[in-house]
Amino acid sequence: MIICDTHCDTLYMRALQPNETPCVTMENMVKGGMSLQTCTLFAGSKGMSDHPHDKALAEYAAFERLAEHEGWQKVDSPLEAEEGKVKILLSVEGGEIFEGSVERVHEFHQRGIRMAALTWNNENEIAYPAKGGTENGIKPQGWEILKAMASLKMAADTSHLNEAGFWDLIDRHSQPPMASHSCAAKLRPHFRNLTDDQIRAMAKRGGWIGVNFYPNFLTESGRAAVEDIVHHIDHMCQLGAEKHVGFGSDFDGIEYTPVDCQSPADIPAILDALRARGYSAQAIEDIAGRNFLNYYRRLGW
Ligand SMILES: [Zn+2]
Predict the structure, then answer these.
(1) CA of 148 relative to ligand 1 center, distance in Å
(2) How many angstroms separate the alpha carbon of residue 93 from the centre of ligand 1?
(3) Rounded to whole angstroms, how far apart are CA atoms 29 and 87?
(4) pLDDT 10s digit of each residue in the chain, 301 long?
(5) How is 71-112 classified by DSSP, letter by letter?
(6) Ligand 1: distance of its center to the CA of 42 in Å?
(7) CB neighbours of 230 closer than 8 A, spacing ≥ 6?
(8) Which member of 12, 57, 203, 223 lies 3.0 to 4.6 Å from 241 by CB, making a disulfide possible if both were Cys?
């Protein structure tokens, strides 16, 4: 079975948090049977003013070291994912990395970036974050960046984006958008989670959602287990997103994990829990990875 995950902050940890120990390691990915682990280049928490482009380059250099010394292999196309082999898909998180420049989009595309979260929690040249609650949509300069992304078949990631920006993408972007690491607001009201209307729209538009494993996005109590991840997946399936949902762990970017899902090695426990809920082998393969690859097929890959 092909298993994909659409968000982890391991490269940021490797490059800029040398005292932390990442859980996304080759050993854990092999144990969990991962096929395609998305690793993001994160802009950092301070937004446009704090050299996001330099940070992204430092994280890319961390990837190159992993490639050289630990056999990490990035894909050019997400469709290179295959069963029994771990490969890496690169993304960016925080569109300020592009510095408002179409050339930068091309530059990162050349490095293998195939997905870009338009914002993190700060306003940038493209759009506004969910955190803060402004009602402004995508900026004119943002549409220039989005046009360049679409021409390169680079996925527009709405995780962290505000609602107005989300609906702009649903209504006006030439490609279906995605949310690489977001949960269901119906089950856990939080500005980072998606409303039922957003989830339905994502399915209808041909988009994709990776459910985040961060306990604080999964439950009110902030304690979570595999069952809670499955609860959010199941809720999205019931809204018609069974062909549009999968995993967006956020490993190495979250302060703590569900008790029984602490690294990619534990992903099979989610598949077991889906099975126990009565999900068919087909449906589980969809959620594990096929939905994500089909999303990229819709982008033209
Ligand atoms: Zn994030």
Answers:
(1) 23
(2) 7
(3) 9
(4) 999 999 999 999 999 999 999 999 999 999 999 999 999 999 999 999 999 999 999 999 999 999 999 999 999 999 999 999 999 999 999 999 999 999 999 999 999 999 999 999 999 999 999 998 899 999 999 999 999 999 999 999 999 999 999 999 999 999 999 999 999 999 999 999 999 999 999 999 999 999 999 999 999 999 999 999 999 999 999 999 999 999 999 999 999 999 999 999 999 999 999 999 999 999 999 999 999 999 999 999 9
(5) ---B-SSGGG--TT--EEEEEEESGGGGTT-HHHHHHHHHTT
(6) 8
(7) 270, 273, 274, 277
(8) 203
pLDDT tens, residue by residue, 254-297: 999 999 999 999 999 999 999 999 999 999 999 999 999 999 99
User: Could you tell me the distance, in angstroms and rounded to a whole number, from the CA of residue 206 to the centre of ligand 1?
Assistant: 22
**CA of residue 196 to ligand 1 center, whole Å:** 20
278 Cα: distance to centroid of ligand 1 (angstroms): 31
Distance 281 CA to ligand 1 centre (A): 30
CA–centroid distance, 73 to ligand 1, in Å, is 23
Q: What is the pLDDT of residues 253-264, one digit of tens each?
A: 999 999 999 999
Q: How far is the CA of 280 from the centre of ligand 1 (A)?
A: 31
Q: Single out the residue of 189, 200, 205 nearest to residue 295, CA to CA.
A: 205
Ligand 1 centroid–CA 251 distance in Å is 10
Dist. CA 181 → ligand 1 center (Å)? 7
Q: Which residue has the tokens 């041909």?
A: 206
Our measurement of the distance from residue 248's CA atom to the centroid of its chain's CA atoms, rounded to an integer in Å, reads 5
Domains of the chain in start order, with CATH, are 4-298 (3.20.20.140)
